[in-house]
Amino acid sequence: MSIDMKKIFLVKGVVQGVGFRPFCSKLAKELKLGGSVQNNSSGVLIELHGDRKSIELYAEKLVDEAPPLAMIQSVESIYEDETSTDPEDFIIRESEKQDIQKVLIPPDIATCEDCLKEMRDPNDKRYRYPFINCTNCGPRYTIIKELPYDRTKTTMACFPMCDECRKEYSDVSNRRYHAQPNACPNCGPTLWLCDAKGEKMAINNDAVLLASKYLREGKILAIKGIGGYHLACDPRNDRAVKELRIRKKRPDKPFALMARDLEAAKSIVLINEKAMKLLLSPRRPIVVCPKGKDDNLSKYVAPNIDTYGIMLPYTPIHHLLLEEQDLLIMTSANISDEPLVAGNREALEKLGPIADYFLMHNRDIYVKIDDSVIAMAGMTPIFTRRARGYVPQPYTSKKALPPIFGAGGEMKSTFSVTHDHYIFTSQYLGDLKDISSIALYEHVMDMFISLYEISPSYLVYDKHPLYLSTRIASNKLSSLKCKLSVQHHHAHLAACLWDNDFSGEAIGLMLDGTGFGDDESIWGGEILIGSAKSFSRAGHLLQAPLPGGDKAVSEPWRFALSLLLQTFEKMEALQIALQLWPKEQDKINIIAQNADKYVKTSSAGRLFDAAASILGLRNKVSYDAQAAIELEAIAKGKACAPFETIEKGDALLIDWRPAIRWLIEGMNKKNKAQLAAGFHDGLSKVLVNVSTKLAAQSGIRHVALSGGVWQNRRLLNVTCALLKEAGLIPLTHKRTSPNDECISLGQVAVGLAHWQ
């Protein structure tokens, strides 16, 4: 057979660690083409020898039939030559390392159906093996130390393949062809069960069976997964769930659940089509869905709210455990606000007082990562935590980007960094409150910069003078001269616009708990007009004193009292306050005497907290946004609280005082569900009225919604519906979270507007 040509392609995207090279080899053999395929630090290099038509067909099939986990972003022809060379075999070459890393690392992927079928086959050598994987599934991001992606550069390097596994790895027709984490019971990682002292009790399948027995008996287990440990127990066992809350010192925050399959999930939550697709996707996030009518779970699983967070199994260990029970609590194993526990020794030290037994393994986790969480607002998914299954997948730009590092915020921290045509945003790194949180931020930052060999030239950070994220990034990038501070809510606006690929100006409704304002007060209920390049503050919620600063966050009655003092005459406000919070009499009098001395805030988050406290739902909180979440949970029916607007110079102020008066006066006339609903819908209405007025003045029709308050499903749905009715176009977060996780992305977007 004569050879017409030789052609070389460079394929970029998520093309390493997803079975792409074996796919390329199979496709070449199918089309009788010679050549080679090779990983390099830009992507995958494919050299083809054969007739022109077959090569053209190859290029088409390369994109159309790519492995399910591959994300091809470009196929570039970099060499073409007419040749008469004899045909060659098609081979997979060893990976090549170049100076600049451009390849994309895949996220960790749920166990595929083929592997599950083998794991359940008594005749298969991997029968009930808890680390079964192939090119289409298993750990990726959490085990990679260096690029290119080869076994020697992962935490699997210490497990040399046995002859049988090596044969599979080298067989082009095998599903494990060049699968880097490939292993079996003879050569791979081992699972074991131990007690809180570390004494081993059983290994592999026996460990799973014994662990299942203990779970059924009401014990609490620490279980090592892909990105860290979970704490597990039986969600139907009141005693076990209550004990987990006591030991973990987590009195109210809802626990996540893992269901054996979709049918088990449907037995406790209402699942629409969009939620079902998310649950079944290879990314396997926790999906927050409405509670069903008749679940028989412990009341301690998710108290005082109307949803459960549920996920399906995503590792072989999970599937094996859930053969014996259909539901388990699977909550992140951490101490208070510290990061997830991932190491075995660390687990015994930190989780010893919590877990009765430990299900451990010896495949190291190089970078810890939490489960992703997506809440359903009807058919609209809202990221509340972007992590496992999604990170490190980048956001793509049509043009090459200057190297910018966005340091992020301090709560729900992330960082973002540009490289080539991409913006990489780290996984959720928690709140930067202690040494362990700072260490995690630094480790992941070092890893990204090392993997991609990035040398940032620009640093963008929050205007708050004391943020630890700013300090960490400034210390590590101390030589940089190009630095830019960005106001918190401007970063929110820029992130939302980037998420919608929108480059124009928009009205921004930025609602969250706190952000350092340009006037050095605490912002949080902001109406902005602008773009990534610049913004103006067109309005905000009427400010009120914040008694006790951070104490007002953990004790919502404090800010509620402040609102009463602003709404009613002082004596009337005090009478109402003493009726609502009689145990706080001494503090109420002190706050009333010093009301003018406290820092002021326009925070929407605190406004919702205050409404919850006035309605008697929550006077003290044990987790972030608890009062507001419980207010949302009871909101039912139709009502509309009377928010008003005040013109102050060029600014429009949203006056909540009539709404607070409406709540107080309505407590004897309406039920709490109606009052809660009216508070939500009244705020939606006034926000849309203000947006409509600004749109008429400016000609701007797009309205961006960002900030943690927009995780409120009712507020989001009603506001978006009213905006559309008014002829405006709502822009909401789609690939990112509206909470402070998006701050680092917004900072980068602002930096690009300044320096690109």
Q: Would you mind describing this structure in some detail?
A:
By secondary structure, the chain is an alpha/beta fold. Among the domains are: 5-92, 2-Layer Sandwich (Alpha-Beta Plaits), CATH 3.30.70; 191-383, DHBP synthase; 513-530 and 544-725, Nucleotidyltransferase, domain 5 (2-Layer Sandwich). The chain is 33% helix and 22% strand. It contains 23 helices and 31 strands. The strands form five sheets. An eleven-stranded mixed β-sheet has the order 7-6-14-8-9-13-10-12-11-15-16, with helices on both faces. A seven-stranded mixed β-sheet has the order 28-29-25-24-23-30-31, with helices on both faces. Strands 17-20-19-18-21-22 form a six-stranded mixed β-sheet, sandwiched between helices. Helix 18 (604-614) packs across helix 19. The radius of gyration is 28 Å and the shape is globular. The model has no long low-confidence stretch (mean pLDDT 95). InterPro entries: Acylphosphatase-like_dom, Acylphosphatase-like_dom_sf, Acylphosphatase_CS, Carbamoyltrans_HypF-like, Carbamoyltransferase_HypF, DHBP_synth_RibB-like_a/b_dom, HypF_C, HypF_C_2. The active site is at residues 21, 39. Pathway: Protein modification; [NiFe] hydrogenase maturation. Residues 205-389 form the YrdC-like domain. Its EC number is 6.2.-.-.
